[in-house]
User: Which sequence fits this backbone?
């Protein structure tokens, strides 16, 4: 294993609260919520029109591969590939009864040979970008991997006011009770790591790396965004 991949895995473990098994369990439990009817409508509108038998779908930061599993159970016949780095996610990956594969890579600096040029029809990055120290290199490399007309579905948390974040976390408009300093340090670290970008930051990155934005919708009461973009024809 390279030092770079190990450093990423150490960071992801810290980012996920220091216990990868708990993070993996949360991912399993949150799958339905993160791929709800709103997501599926957006996917149907912007991804499915470019898919047919043999099309390649890549889930970037796929976790245990539950979305790929879901796709494998519905038509058309697709070439399904996930990319993941966290070992605790890989340990929970769906078994070989499902027709997809997972490749291990650091998406902060993905190797060009991870996929062939112009080989991907649709790429999904669902709650990935906030975990990247910088997403620019991935967007540049993905542009080369996508077929002309290929689509990227990008869904992630976006920057929100601290007051909104705390109100959402505590479910209260006032915090009169004294809080534990250690717990608050972890909470504020979580705030900064999940509030890296505004939606217009993501749109600017997409524009600067040659994508055409097809749709940009605010979700989760403004706490997240879903974007469809494509490599121009």
Assistant:
């Amino acid at each position: 294993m390279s030092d770079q991949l190990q450093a990423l895995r150490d960071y992801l473990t810290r980012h996920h609260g220091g216990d990868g098994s708990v993070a993996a369990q949360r991912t399993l439990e949150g799958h339905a919520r993160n791929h709800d009817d709103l997501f599926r409508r957006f996917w149907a509108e912007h991804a499915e029109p470019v898919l047919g038998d043999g099309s390649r779908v890549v889930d970037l930061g796929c976790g245990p591969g539950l979305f790929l599993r879901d796709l494998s159970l519905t038509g058309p016949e697709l070439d399904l590939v996930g990319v993941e780095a966290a070992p605790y996610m890989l340990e929970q990956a769906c078994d070989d009864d499902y027709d997809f594969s997972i490749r291990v890579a650091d998406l902060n600096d993905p190797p060009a040979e991870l996929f062939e040029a112009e080989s991907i029809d649709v790429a999904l990055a669902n709650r990935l970008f906030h975990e990247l120290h910088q997403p620019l290199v991935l967007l540049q490399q993905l542009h080369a991997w996508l077929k002309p007309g290929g689509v990227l579905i990008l869904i992630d948390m976006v920057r929100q006011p601290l007051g909104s974040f705390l109100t959402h976390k505590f479910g209260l408009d006032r915090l009169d009770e004294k809080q534990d300093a250690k717990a608050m340090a972890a909470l504020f670290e979580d705030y900064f790591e999940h509030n890296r970008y505004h939606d217009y930051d993501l749109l600017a990155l997409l524009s600067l790396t040659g994508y055409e934005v097809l749709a940009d919708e605010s979700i989760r009461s403004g706490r997240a965004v879903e974007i469809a973009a494509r490599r121009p024809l």
